[in-house]
Amino acid sequence: MLEYGSDGSESLLHHSITPSLQRSRRGGFALYEVLLGVTVFVIGVVSLGRSVQNCITASSLTAEDSRIRLILANRMAEIQATPGTPDSAKETKVDTGYGTIKLIQKTVPAQLTEEDGVELNGLNLVTLRAQWDRGGVTQSESIQFYVYRAG
Q1: Does residue 136 lie in a domain region?
Q2: By residue range, what is the domain housing residue 82?
Q3: Number of helices and strands (H, E) in the chain?
């Protein structure tokens, strides 16, 4: 709004921007805001995707570890339940559906003695080792236990 002074000059009393000019300035800021929001959203989605992938990998490794432990525990129970001295060396392959696991068994006399030096006969130390490949790298896990057979 303009006002004319006593000398006939124009002076600005109130400066206002036309509505169409206000809309165009807001539209420019809205574009930057949208771009910034989309960028933050994309970064969040990518980070979430990586987190989910890490969880799935950890879950599959835990399942694989549980499967190996179960195979070792089952074989240990078989050895303990079978009468007679366990085999001195034995190798078997177990197909799990996820890959083949090689199960290696070695048995040696325990050679334990009592406090007075008397050797304990009939005790054998059994070592079970499971070997498998994960991503081209050989993995293994083993357990040792004693088996007593009166002889």
Answers
A1: yes
A2: 9-148
A3: 1, 6
Q: Do residues 130 and 72 touch, judged by C-beta distance below 8 A?
A: yes
- Mean pLDDT by runs of 10 across the 151 residues of the chain is 56 52 56 90 95 93 90 94 90 87 94 85 93 90 92 65
Instruction: State how many domains the chain has.
Output: 1
Would you say residue 4 lies in a domain? no
* Position 35 in a domain: yes
CA angle 81, 86, 87 (to 5 degrees): 140
Instruction: Tell whether 1 is covered by a domain.
Output: no
* N residues, the chain: 151
Question: For residue 123, what is the DSSP state?
Answer: E
- Give the pTM: 0.66
Report the b/e string of 49-69 with b at 16+ CB within 10 A: eeeeeeeeeeeeeeebeebbe
